[in-house]
# Entry
Amino acid sequence: MNGPFDLSGRAALVTGASSGIGEAIAVALAQAGADIVAVARRDPEGARAAVAATGRKLWHVAADLEGTAAIADAVAQATRHAPALDILVNNAGTIRRADALDVTESDWDAVIDVNLKSAFFLAQAFARTLVARKATGKVINIASLLSFQGGIRVAAYTASKSGLLGITRLLANEWAKLGINVNAIAPGYVATANTEALRNDADRNRTILERIPAGRWGEPGDLGGAAVFLASRASDYVHGAVLPVDGGWLAR
# Structure
């Protein structure tokens, strides 16, 4: 494979790669030629098999990103497997649903720690490896429609994803001069474990589908092309952008 989307010879660290969007992005990057370091609590069995089928390598680094304590070790392990990491996909995330009147501090902290705090410090650790090598690289943060909208019953998630988009822009401002592109993808309503409760609620499922111009829920694989673009040379002059992959939701 040649051309601006070719990732041959590249290595990508993908968090939350054991299922859903993270798994699909890891596989798409491998299909474009990249080797994968999958950072996840569980063994990424599905991604492992799919990446192997592409002829690329996948290494698993077990880490819990609910706090920052595991980040330094995770990056150290990742660079032992792939000394020249080029790409970071900050995908790991969690969600807690409750009315704003009932949100607990522990639930708030759990969501912010994974979705925002760990994402920032993982990007920092990754960028430091690039600076030490005098190398360029790509950071792709997985934002959300709730980086733009308020939503309901997901106060901490909305705060975290709004913050992640802000951090994407800040890091782009600081790191563009270093040759590090920082951008984001904002998935729409995608059929994953995080949205299972919505899909099982007949009324909410109906109202969501009525709003999506494409007329369907997204599939994790729908995010793959956007990730390959932002990881590749094709996006070398793209800094601080957010690419919605939402079936037209935000255009409605």
Remarks:
- The first strand starts at residue 11 and ends at 15.
